[in-house]
Write a structure and sequence with these properties.
By secondary structure, this protein is of the alpha/beta class. Helix content is 47%, strand content 11%. It starts with 10 loop residues before the first strand and ends in a 14-residue tail after the last helix.
């Protein structure tokens, strides 16, 4: 998902503790996809309760956000609203890819090809209304605020950071930089040991920060030209130019200065070019939100996770105890947050 411009951007590895007391606007859908993809059983199937309801995302929210909050991070989830019409083709293609991956995973599992089945199962993850609703219910019980964006969550999160209501965005994608986010932290909710695809090798994955101004300065371009590079490569709203990767796109922008000049020189066109550029520069966002963290409601968390979704009572209680005794960035309790 998202635009493939990561190789061009300057990044710095950090520790989670470096974000103590920072407000991180987390791209909810992106993060939920990560939880659904990574938190799985050995055969590739997601975690489920006795009624067959998927619970991988709930496990991720409880345990991984607890770890972040122990380090003093103040998370706020930002959920997507109605996608723009020009994203419809991308949404359809993603649905087709997920269905194809689901079929391939089932076939591989039946043949006993465990690793192949796991790989395709990860690609079949889907965030639906039930997953979103359950996620919001758990976040509320844990005292973590969330925001409903009118359109793209990353656009809303970028607006919140620019406005000063959050310090940075948490997302694996780079789209929020196109929406003008000053800084993005990657690997925040997926840090730790990760297995390399197709290899029995595990690598350490640490959070890394990408600063927009630093990246632009190093590339010698402005923000609009970064958008133009993304349009050359392909975004959620256009297919991009044939056989043009990020490095070739950067070279073209340096030579021609703008996407318009590139298209004119090569006698090409990108449908709805101006609409897409305008959407990146002035997306639909809202001020109708309130960021207020509260102490977790243990009874509500236990009732929801253990009573409705078969979570281990002991494990949930231990996670809640960690929240209650969290340092909150140097204090013995969470009190200084509120």
């Amino acid at each position: 998902m998202g635009v493939d411009i990561g190789d061009l951007l300057k990044r710095s590895t950090i520790e989670v503790s470096d974000l103590s007391l920072d407000i991180v606007a987390i791209d909810a859908f992106n993060t939920l996809y990560q939880f659904l993809s990574i938190i799985r059983q050995r055969d590739g199937t997601p975690l489920k309760d006795s009624n067959g309801n998927i619970t991988s995302h709930l496990s991720g929210i409880l345990y991984r956000l607890t770890s972040l909050m122990e380090a003093g991070v103040k998370p706020v989830f930002v959920f997507d609203g109605k996608p723009p019409e020009m994203k419809s083709r991308t949404i359809e293609k993603r649905a087709e890819i997920r269905e194809s991956a689901r079929i391939k995973s089932t076939e591989a599992r039946e043949k006993g090809h465990a690793e192949e089945a796991y790989k395709y199962a990860q690609a079949s993850s889907k965030v639906d209304a039930t997953i979103v609703g359950d996620s919001k219910k758990l976040l509320g019980a844990m005292g973590i605020p969330f925001v409903d964006a009118p359109s793209e969550g990353e656009a809303q999160a970028a607006y919140m950071v620019r406005k000063g209501d959050a310090d940075l965005i948490g997302s694996q994608d780079y789209d929020s930089l196109l929406f003008g986010a000053p800084s993005v932290v990657r690997n925040l909710t997926v840090s730790g040991k990760r297995k390399l695809p197709g290899k029995n090798i595990y690598v350490d994955v640490k959070p890394e920060i990408i600063n927009l101004d630093e990246s632009l300065a190093e590339l010698g371009i402005n923000h609009e030209q970064l958008i133009d590079i993304a349009l050359c490569v392909g975004t959620d709203y256009n297919d991009g130019l044939e056989r043009i990767g990020p490095k070739k796109a950067l070279k073209l922008i340096r030579e021609h200065e703008s996407i318009e000049n590139i298209l004119k020189a090569k006698d090409l066109e990108i449908p709805h070019l101006e609409d897409i550029k305008e959407f990146f520069k002035s997306p639909d966002v809202t001020d109708d939100y309130s960021l207020k963290w509260s102490k977790p409601d243990p009874e509500a968390v236990i009732s929801f996770l253990c009573g409705e979704h078969d979570f281990s009572n002991d494990r949930v209680v231990k996670a809640l105890e960690r929240l209650e005794t969290s340092s909150g960035g140097g204090q013995s309790t969470l009190d200084k947050w509120f």
